[in-house]
Design a protein that fits this description.
alpha+beta; Metal Transport, Frataxin, Chain A; three-stranded antiparallel sheet; 3 helices; 3 strands; globular
Length: 84
């Protein structure tokens, strides 16, 4: 899915957001996967003061983790990189 379409989907407030889509969106705004500890995938960003922790639960992302990414995008003024 295109990056801009993923961002729009996240902003729509849908609860049907796949883990792969959330990971792709995090990378699209500049996060890098730092480590994996069980089901927890820890992403870091040079401009963010805290890591982003997302979990894969049967292929789905937890809704509050989608909201955390959106909060970080706004708070740290993160932009989509080379959006298509």
């Amino acid at each position: 899915m295109k990056k801009l379409k993923l961002l729009r989907k996240a902003l729509s407030g849908t609860k049907n957001f796949r883990f792969a889509e959330l990971s792709q969106l995090a990378v699209a705004v500049g996060y890098k996967l730092d480590r994996v500890n069980g089901s927890h995938h820890i992403f870091v960003h040079a401009r963010a003061s805290r890591p982003l922790n997302i979990q894969n639960v049967h292929g789905q992302a937890k809704p509050y983790q989608v909201r955390q990414l959106l909060r970080d995008i706004e708070e740290f003024n993160l932009q989509l990189e080379n959006h298509e």
